[in-house]
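Box 3.1 — From sequence to structure: tetrahydrofolate synthase
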Amino acid sequence: MTTDINSLLKTFRRFGVNLGLERIKRLLADLGNPHHYVPIIHVAGTNGKGSVCAYLSSILTEAGYRVGRYTSPHLIDWTERICLNQQPIATEALYSLLIQVKGAIPENCENYPTQFEVITAAAWLYFAQQQVDIAVMEVGLGGRLDATNVCDHPLVSVITSLSREHWQRLGPTLADISREKAGILKPGCPAVIGPLPPEAKEVITSRIEQLGCPAIWVEPAQEIKLPTSNLNNNQELSPRWASYQSYPMASTAPKNAGEDHISQIPLVKNHQFD
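Predicted structure (token representation):
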């Protein structure tokens, strides 16, 4: 079955990386616009977005929500990209969804969706069918023209960090790249922004003010040394704690508020502190 998924998706690889929202919106419309039924947290950024998605989905799952998570790329298997309550989608379920997505593409299509758009459409379809309370969606590339950027009212948009990356597609300057990332921000919708270089912060600040987004600005983290005697294998670890400038954001409490929760994340290593 994994071979079947690889073969199916391989047929779309030849369309390469082609940013734009026209194809994904048309495809989703032919599938019944499943994204309209999925409340999302949208996460973009140069570094840290995968870790943020892992943290958020774990915390929300432990709080009693039904949580979808969509990330890319995968490490071993395509099913890793689409998770429900921390569990990857079953191989058979993913294959069935991909067949459904492929069937929605007209035979005479002149502008075929890319491989990333096909797997993203499958994720939207899965989360809608599973009636998730929240889906944590990681941007694939950039933000403004990414296939995940099809929701007008995200619960919150997150930009973790910004640096000069993918400049061939996103623009030669940090300001250009910042404008592309800022494309996930939506009018009046809350935003959480990580520490940014001055040039990037100026662009993001301007966009937030223009859209009237309530914003939390996360301050640079501070390292806290822990005694090695408290750590497994006697290894020293330096977690970094971040402060933030907050505003009244949530009007509803978690489903089991007041209880203690232990959240688990995949791929536990030092990179999760970045």
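Summary of the box: The chain has eight helices and eleven strands.
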